[in-house]
Structures are given as structure tokens and as C-alpha cells.
Amino acid sequence: MPWPEDLTLTSITGDALESLDGKAVLVVNVASQCGLTPQYEGLERLHRRYGDQGFSVLGVPCNQFAGQEPGTAEEIQAFCSATYGATFPLTSKLDVNGSRRHPLYQWLAATPDADGQAGEVEWNFEKFLVSPSGAVVARFRPPVEPDDDRVIAAIEQVLA
Amino acid sequence: MGDRLRAHNGLELTVTRIDDAFMGRSDMVAFVEDSGVQWLKMPAFRDGEVELVRRGAA
Q: The complex's ipTM?
């Protein structure tokens, strides 16, 4: 089952986002001024480690958590590239919670975490793993590092 | 509830909800505006100070 048909995602460059069909994707709402921003390093490691196996990280800049992603698209891109050497795709800035929540997150947020809690994204760097067949198979709350054993195991399971 | 607060970075929100134990921390809460204007979350220390822009209706 593919991603919801009504999803329209734009790259941070303003172009159409590269197709993620058939890939395992770790969707992460990101921010440049958060205490968790160093997670970019681990996200980039995942992207490079599993990229040739049909996996991608997808970063979703969001300014809804204490306004920690205030920059323009150009500023966000430059920061990610220069500071962390991030090569994974980024969407345009989106709302992940609230009445203007993007349909991507209406879909993702219905998935519960390991404690059975679904609903609102809690903070920056919450992670959702989507399988190659388009199923949301795991949700990891912000403090879970990208290279946590649980994240690695979930990725390797969907790539198996 | 209904108070309008200003964060250190100048962002303002009208509190519609207060979440306990922000990110599992018993010493922190989070003020949330979930309205037609915006959804914004702002953490604060439980015993800290916040800048009050306008008191909400009693």
C-alpha cells in the first residue's frame, strides 16, 4: 500500500520531492535550534548506512516547538549541509500538529508508540518508520537517538 | 488558561492547554496554544518565570 494518495510534499528547494515509493523511510520532524539538533549526525549516518538498501531519512522542518526552526528554506538547507553534512531530503517547512497539520502527519500521528500512545507529535525529532510497502511500522519519541538499537532493529526488519 | 505568554525568543502564545512533565521531566511543563491561529508548544520550568503579555479572562 503506497503512501496516501492525497499527500503532496514539496522539497525544501521548492521542487517536487524525490519519489520515496518502494523505500523504507524514517520521517523525522527537525529543527535547527533544538537541544536535540545534534541528532542530525545520527540521522545522516543512518541515511548513508542503509541508503543503498532502499532506505531514506526524510527530514520535515517544523517551527511549532518553541519556534526552534525559524529560518528560511535557504537558511535551513545551508545549516543542515554546513553543520552536519546532511544529504537526506528535506521537505518544505510544515505543521505537524494542530488544525493546519499537514496530511502527512495526519497519517503518521495515528500510529502509536511502543507505549501505545498515538496522537500529537511531542517535540522536535520524533521519528516514524514507514516500510517499503507504505505501512507506518514504528514510532519513536524525540529522546530516542537515531542509532538506538530499537531504531536500527526496526529499520533492518523492514529491509530484510 | 487563556493567558498570553511571550517566550524569550519573542514568540507569543495564548495558553489553551498545559502539559505536565514535559519530555518526562517532573520539573517542567509545556504551555500549548492549539487554536485556529496556531499550534505552538513552549516548555517552561515548573518553578520558573514566564513573561505574561495579557491575563486571560477569569
A: 0.91
